[in-house]
């Protein structure tokens, strides 16, 4: 495979659109069997990176290897081992669920007889067996996402690229899809996904990079990133009016002001909460929670992921 077993290896990877740089020299190494995420807000450069990895958009600079191969020269060989689930499902809404997958299977040279069996198995696996004959236009958003995932597996790929797999889905549909992705992970399939949902990154990924403005601002396991960049707990303080900065400065821990609320970062949230009550702030609501990747992003960029 080359690159010491790396499925994906990028060095100084760049993507430019005319004079705009969408991906600005990133280094990424993804090992076989890993579940890896690109986390970042809209416009961070996640999809541009995925499209280069998926061999649909050539890099403007740097070095990229997938399975040790060059995506520009060896795109066909790479794609035969990759599953790609793009952000816009690119499903044909006039065709049935089954037809969407069988058509795709033929691109990969799966024989007609075998394609039918394989596609039926995949539809069952994503719980769409009973909707095989339904037109895609009649399926819900969650069903379409599951169909797109099933379709990306027709060639039995070693690595699956999922661009925002659950954006726009309701919680039940997201959890069903997550469960299926866990199954793939357990089978040893390498998963590479983009997301702007921190809980998705925390749930699914062994390791993530946080992207902002085309660059990587942090890398590590979700657990370690939180440990490294923020405290264990956060107290969310909502207040009436404008709080006195001098009072906020007396609170134990780092304070981050965000519009109508302040975040108080402290390892012992309950003690910090008690101190906030004692400080005499005019609070309308308070609660203590564990720090998340959202807090890491805020710490590193000064912005929230959903800005
Ligand atoms: N084909 C293109 N031509 C010009 N600019 C582009 C093109 N594709 C992407 N961009 C720009 O590159 C930047 C990064 O876009 P990209 O889609 O990679 O971000 P993203 O992190 O995936 O965000 P999103 O979650 O919105 O998809 C954006 O500012 C976008 O407008």
UniProtKB/TrEMBL annotation:
Localisation: Cell membrane
Protein name: ATP-binding cassette domain-containing protein
Annotated keywords: Antibiotic resistance, ATP-binding, Nucleotide-binding, Transport
SMART domains: AAA
InterPro entries associated with the record: AAA+_ATPase, ABC_transporter-like_ATP-bd, ABC_transporter-like_CS, ABC_transporter_ATP-binding, P-loop_NTPase
Protein family (similarity comment): Belongs to the ABC transporter superfamily.
Domain ABC transporter positions: 8-238
Highest rank taxon of the organism: Bacteria
PANTHER family attached to this UniProt entry: ABC TRANSPORTER ATP-BINDING PROTEIN, ABC TRANSPORTER ATP-BINDING PROTEIN NATA
Protein source organism: Luedemannella flava
One GO MF term: ATP binding
Membrane topology value: Peripheral membrane protein
């Amino acid at each position: 495979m080359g690159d010491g077993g790396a499925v994906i290896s990028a060095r100084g990877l760049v993507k430019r659109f005319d004079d705009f740089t969408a991906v600005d020299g990133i280094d990424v190494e993804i090992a076989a069997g890993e579940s890896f995420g690109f986390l970042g807000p809209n416009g961070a450069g996640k999809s541009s990176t995925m499209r280069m990895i998926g061999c649909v958009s050539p890099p403007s600079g740097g070095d990229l290897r997938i399975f040790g191969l060059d995506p520009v020269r060896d795109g066909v060989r790479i794609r035969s081992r990759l599953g790609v689930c793009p952000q816009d499902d690119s499903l044909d809404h006039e065709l049935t669920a089954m037809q969407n997958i069988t058509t795709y299977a033929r691109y990969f040279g799966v024989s007609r007889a075998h394609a039918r069996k394989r596609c039926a198995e995949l539809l069952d696996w994503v719980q769409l067996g009973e909707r095989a004959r339904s037109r895609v236009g009649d399926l819900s958003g969650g069903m379409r996402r599951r169909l797109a995932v099933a379709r990306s597996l027709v060639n039995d790929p070693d690595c699956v690229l999922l661009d925002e797999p659950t954006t726009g889905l309701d919680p039940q549909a997201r959890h069903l899809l997550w469960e299926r992705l866990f199954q793939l992970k357990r089978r040893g399939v390498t998963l590479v996904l983009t997301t702007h949902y921190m809980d998705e990154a925390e749930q699914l990924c062994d390791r993530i990079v946080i992207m902002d403005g085309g660059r990587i601002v942090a890398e590590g396991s979700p657990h370690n990133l939180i440990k490294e960049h923020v405290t264990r707990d956060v107290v969310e303080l909502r207040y009436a009016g404008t709080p006195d900065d001098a009072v906020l400065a007396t609170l134990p821990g780092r304070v981050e002001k965000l519009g109508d609320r302040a975040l108080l970062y402290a390892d012992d949230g309950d003690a910090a909460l008690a101190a906030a009550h004692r400080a005499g702030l005019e609070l309308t609501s308070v609660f203590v929670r564990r720090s998340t990747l959202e807090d890491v992003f805020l710490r590193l960029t000064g912005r929230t992921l959903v800005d």
